Amino acid sequence: MNILVLNGPNLNLLGVREKGIYGERSYDDLAAFIQSAAAEAGLQVDIFQSNHEGALVDKIQQALGVYDGIVINPAAYTHTSIAILDALKAVNLPAVEVHLSDVTRREPFRQVSYAGMACIKSFIGMGFEGYRQAILFLKGHLQGR
Ligand code: DQA
Predict the structure, then answer these.
(1) For ligand 1, what atom is nearest to the CA of residue 98?
(2) Residue closest by Cα to atom 1 of ligand 1
């Protein structure tokens, strides 16, 4: 099983940005965490981060026929991007949404998730652990559990 993990804008600044919300660990730490969570689950993973909406849309489109599922943290595009929602719907791969912070307890503009409307599950406010949970959930889903 081959999965794609997509991370949106400003997640490359983990460990620098708003540490009280996103923590001290860096994006490289997150990538290493995701790699080891996938390895533990026996899955092949590719990780991609972009600050550009179109680049994320392109990656979703290119996932068709290559990956079995997608884990996505669209970051701020969560709350704005119908293009990412449409791309997820278009490829129709099982997708799981992750947010490091608990967006349900933050500003009103973070209360809508467009991407989430095309996802089978969301893991919110669990920090890095949310990615491990998303990978395990996707694996279970792909195995028909
Ligand atoms: C985020 C939450 C978003 O609202 C925010 O714009 C982000 C990160 C999270 O992981 O908690 O950049 O997706």
Answers:
(1) 10
(2) 75
